[in-house]
Amino acid sequence: MKLLKPDDETALKYDFMLLEKYKINWKASYRRRQELFNQEIIEQGSMDDFEYYKIIQEEAFYHYYLVEDDGTLIGRARISKRGDNIVIEYMRIEEEMRHKGYGEKMVNLIEQDIFANSEVSGICFEDASPNMETSKIALKMNYDETSPKQYYKPNPNFKGKEDESKANGEPER
Description:
Blueprint: E1 2-4, H1 9-21, H2 26-36, H3 49-58, E2 62-69, E3 72-82, E4 85-93, H4 102-115, E5 122-126, H5 133-140, E6 144-147, E7 150-154, H6 161-167
Parallel strand pairs: 4-5
Antiparallel strand pairs: 1-2, 2-3, 3-4, 5-7, 6-7
C-alpha cells in the first residue's frame, strides 16, 4: 500500500480523475472559496483543465492524500491546517474496498507522514459520515473524542511552544 502525498503528481492525477468521474464542479468550488476568503482568483486562460487544477492546488487551503495498492485507488482524505494542527476533514474509501481494513491503514500512513513534522502539534479528525465509520476508525486508533464526531491525537514528535519554554527553563502555565 502506498501513500500519495498532496505534492505528488500521481496524487494530483488521481484526484483530478475522481473529480471528473463524480462530475464535481471544482472550478466553481475554487471560485467560491477564493471569494469567501477574499483571495485572488487565478484565471485558467489557455491552460488545459489538469494544468489549471495543479496550479490552483498549490494555493489551496486543503490538500488530498490518496492511497493506492498495486495501482488500484483505495481512497482519499482531505486535510487542512488549523493553527498547529492538521485536520482530516474528509475520508473516503472506494466502495469496493470497504470493510477490508484499508481505512485504518490509510490513517496510519497519513499519521506517519504528518507526525514526522515536529511543527505539527496533532491531528484532528472530523467525522461527517452518516454511518459513523470514521468515528469507529478514530476510536480504534486511540484518538481522543473531544466533542461529538470530533477526535484528536497529539503528535509525539511535536517541538512547539511548550517544548521551547521548557528548554528555556520557563515554568509551565
